[in-house]
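task queued by scheduler; priority normal; single chain, no ligands, no partner chains; default sampling; output format set to structure tokens
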Amino acid sequence: MSITTSEQLEKLRACGQIVAKALRAMASAVRPGITTAELSEIGSRILEANAARSSPPMVYGFPGDVCISVNDEVVHGIPGARVLQPGDLVKLDLTAEKDGYHTDSAVSIEVQPRNKTAHELAHCAEKSFRQALPAARAGNRTKDIGRAIEREVRRRGFHVIPELGGHGVGRTIHESPSVPNYADPLARHLLTDGLVITIEPIIAATTGAVSLDRDGWTVRTADGGLSAHYEHTIVITRGDPILLTAS
């Protein structure tokens, strides 16, 4: 969507802050011995307490309020009985709706004691997001965001996953445009003032190839290597973008 009124911005900002609060609470609870279902329940309670709803069950029928993906699980992991172990890399991905507006954010959290590769990969995902922000301004194109992400990921020796990337958001989870994590020459959508999108580097340690699990939801690396994910919902402006889901 494109924001045309201050009321829309404030509603999106309010939703974004609820998402940020839920992610902070879940991230602080990540530890050996906790299950992914227990983590999801923490997020669910915060959404409920703030009159917000998880978007994926509403829009797609996803069987959980939070996508929780561990290690080689890249995205869309279903919360359940899995117990976190020392050294795991956990991706918490939450999209929520409040008052008809949706925002989306994700973080990668290391289970202590940390794994060196997991630490470097998670840091790369966040760093590549930061490197992409200067390209996320009115007048540029979506491929400019992808180029900045890919450059940083390759510089650190990791891999982007071409099938997965950012997207428009606002009135529902996934809207136009697609926002690639690489310099896709076809990604020529013009970034305009007020456009609401996500930037979300989704990267892997050893391969950009992925496969879909039999559950029909969980995407994992084809070779079993680690993956990381970092995401915020932003508003494009003529200057620095507005980060709606930043705490």
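post-processing summary
- Residues 6-243 form a domain with the Creatine Amidinohydrolase fold (CATH 3.90.230.10).
- The mean pLDDT is 98.
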